TrEMBL record:
Pfam families referenced in this protein's UniProt entry, alphabetically: Epimerase (PF01370)
Protein name (Swiss-Prot/TrEMBL): NAD-dependent epimerase/dehydratase family protein
Naturally occurring in which organism (per UniProt): Streptomyces hokutonensis
InterPro entries on file: Epimerase_deHydtase (IPR001509), NAD(P)-bd_dom_sf (IPR036291), NAD(P)_dehydrat-like (IPR050425)
NAD-dependent epimerase/dehydratase domain residues: 5-240
Superkingdom of origin: Bacteria
Family to which the UniProt record says this protein belongs: Belongs to the NAD(P)-dependent epimerase/dehydratase family. Dihydroflavonol-4-reductase subfamily.
Length: 339
């Protein structure tokens, strides 16, 4: 009998690709949705790549509530806990932090009670980064972001606290279930649907001409297909149990991404602005015109990078170049009519 893998948050960008690749590799998949009625959209998205007939099932469970998680984990062999709250900063940081932290604990409690063999939790490279935004150099999984740093944006703090809570839970657990965490960078690549663009929304805005310029921000670009491959390798590799794995990609400036899009998309690239926005202009806009920019201003000019040597060595993981991920992402958005 094929092993059954639970993927949390099946309507999400990364989770959808997890479902696709698991089905491709012969697993049975169960995925969670937050409310009844969302199953059709997930099935339709997955069906654009692979036939899920008879091998994809659903469970209703929300990160903010206990109900549904025991049923979701029943009979499950392995878990990819990908779901995490996203969105703009709130006046109350706990609005983002609590669902991420408490949701991870709900999944782990249900998984350990069900005797699941291994849980792979999606964290973020921002949970293994220096507190100082001025830092340069290369860091690895041994570093933990300081969650008490007052300059941290809520999303970064939520990912750090959620992963910390997961490891703390496992340190007091004595049973067969294992935990592994994967820490991605900026996730681009093709989309299955335009219903939930997630991190690729920035590529859509650039291609559609809605960004008059690009801030001086560097991203470690990882293709969603390579990130999913890292998750599945972390789920199955014997040496991955109890480990953190950075799954970042090539470091590129947003200006480089803009030039890649402009040069590589033909007619569709003409609307992409490659003009670099001065740091002071971004800060002024964040202060007076667009409060949503406040979360990116601390990262202006930041050059810190992460090492993926551990994932390459232990998992045999090899990500594709950032240029390929960016262009495949843009072409997919164009094909889906998102730009």
């Amino acid at each position: 009998m094929p092993e059954l893998v639970l993927v949390t948050g099946g309507s999400g960008y990364i989770a959808g690709w997890c479902v696709v690749e698991l089905l491709r590799r012969g697993y049975d998949v169960r995925t969670t949705v937050r409310a009844p009625g969302k199953e059709r959209a997930v099935t339709d998205a997955v069906s654009t790549v692979v036939d899920p007939a008879g091998r994809l099932s659903f469970a209703v469970a929300d990160l903010t509530a206990d109900e549904g998680w025991d049923a979701a984990l029943k009979g499950v062999d392995l878990v990819l806990h990908v779901a995490s709250p996203l969105g703009a900063a709130s006046d109350d940081p706990e609005a983002l932090i609590a669902p991420a932290r408490d949701g991870a604990l709900r999944v782990l409690r249900a998984a350990t009670e069900a005797g699941v063999r291994r849980v792979v939790l999606t964290s973020a490279a921002n949970a293994a980064s220096p507190s100082s935004y001025a830092s340069e150099g290369v860091t690895d999984e041994t570093l933990w972001t300081d969650p008490d740093d007052p300059t941290l944006i809520p999303y970064r703090r939520s990912k750090t606290l959620a992963e910390r809570a997961a490891w703390d839970f496992m340190s007091g657990y004595d049973g067969p279930t294992e935990l592994t965490t994967v820490l991605p960078g900026a996730v681009f690549g093709p989309v299955l649907t335009t219903a939930n663009l997630g991190s690729v929304g920035i590529i859509a805005r650039m291609v559609s001409g809605k960004m008059p310029g690009v801030p001086r921000i560097g991203l470690e670009v990882v293709d969603v297909r390579d990130l999913v491959d890292a998750h599945i390798r972390a789920m199955t590799a014997p040496g991955a149990a109890g480990q953190r794995f950075l799954a970042t990609g090539e470091f590129v400036w947003m200006e480089d991404i803009a030039r890649t899009l402009r040069d590589g998309l033909g007619e569709h690239g003409r609307t992409v602005s490659t003009r670099r926005l001065p740091d002071f202009a971004v800060r002024l806009a964040a202060r007076f015109r667009d409060p949503s920019l406040r979360e990116i201003t601390p990262a202006l000019g930041r050059r810190n990078r992460h090492s993926t040597e551990k994932a390459r060595r232990v998992l045999g993981w090899e990500p594709r170049p950032a240029r390929e991920a960016v262009l495949d992402c843009a072409r997919s958005l164009i094909e889906h009519g998102a730009v």
